[in-house]
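Section 5: illustrative case.
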């Protein structure tokens, strides 16, 4: 049985009154950790659901040396309140009859000290997890956003562009990284005092529930000091380079990808040019001009650039 299934079974047994004293101890510890928190906004319920499941998993994996206490030390009303709290914040509930988790479902992915893992979501976004990383994500994204949590370690994200459904990565200390479509790396280790976000292509917004710290573009890095709660934005010492792969893609579909990768604007001289196809593998070490030169050479096109090299126009010779 997986840890996720064990966690679900644990809370189900508690709600059904079938938990052993040791299992009651685990639920008690979880309840205490959330007892003094204020109810969260509706939009954060899925985040808490993932955190609760993760907390239960971690408690199962930890061998406690302390003697177990019985839940009898808690008044019945308080136990009932704990159950009500679980239900009221929208974590979902386990039906007494059906014994299954309803509402949103989450999965947790770990990497060991000697492995990396790649996960590709249904929207086409990809996450490359470094060793000793942990990711919590919904089995199905909702219609408003695509939210996942990097609860430990380092990962590189290549996000599929969706104009009306942002991609959010939550880390410790209530930090979030919000993008529409780009690639970036996050380092967030519990035993380190800083969280860092490095942008390889496009741009991302970083902040918390109180404020937006800043918007990062290609080649920039944000460092957040968890102790002093200070933010520093600077150029990345070592540039992150990624491949841009296109296979039989229409130029009209290729342009938004280049625009997000380089934070530029590209216009076409006529709509007919957007139907032309392109196949190739480029790398962000190349400039936008280099890539446009190759694409234009394939179809006997030309392009012009603005003085700041941020706006381009592609047209027929």
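Designed sequence:
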């Amino acid at each position: 049985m997986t840890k996720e299934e064990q966690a679900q079974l644990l809370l189900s047994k508690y709600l059904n009154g079938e938990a052993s004293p040791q299992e009651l101890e685990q639920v008690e510890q979880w309840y205490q950790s959330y007892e003094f928190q204020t109810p969260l906004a509706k939009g954060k319920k899925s985040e808490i659901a993932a955190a609760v499941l993760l907390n239960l998993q971690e408690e199962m994996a930890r061998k406690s040396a302390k003697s177990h206490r019985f839940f009898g030390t808690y008044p019945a009303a308080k136990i009932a309140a704990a159950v009500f709290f679980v239900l009221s914040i929208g974590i979902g509930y386990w039906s007494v009859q059906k014994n299954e988790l309803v509402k949103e479902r989450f999965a947790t992915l770990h990497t060991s000290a000697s492995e990396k893992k790649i996960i590709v979501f249904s929207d086409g976004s990809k996450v490359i997890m470094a060793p000793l990383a942990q990711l919590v994500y919904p089995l199905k994204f909702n219609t408003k956003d695509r939210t996942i949590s990097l609860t430990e370690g380092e990962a590189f994200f290549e996000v599929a562009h969706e104009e009306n459904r942002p991609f959010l990565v939550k880390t410790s200390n209530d930090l979030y990284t919000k993008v529409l479509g780009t690639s970036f790396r996050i380092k967030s280790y519990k035993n380190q005092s800083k969280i860092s976000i490095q942008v390889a292509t496009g741009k991302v917004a970083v902040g918390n529930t109180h404020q937006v710290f800043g918007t990062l573009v290609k080649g920039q890095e944000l460092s957040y000091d968890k102790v002093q709660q200070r933010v520093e934005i600077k150029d990345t010492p070592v540039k992150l380079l990624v491949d841009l792969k296109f296979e039989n893609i229409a130029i009209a579909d290729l342009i938004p990808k280049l625009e997000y990768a380089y934070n530029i604007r590209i216009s076409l001289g006529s709509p007919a040019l957007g139907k032309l196809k392109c196949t190739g593998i480029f790398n962000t070490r190349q400039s936008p001009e280099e890539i446009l030169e190759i694409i234009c050479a394939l179809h006997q096109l030309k392009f012009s650039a603005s003085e700041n090299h941020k706006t381009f126009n592609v047209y027929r010779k």
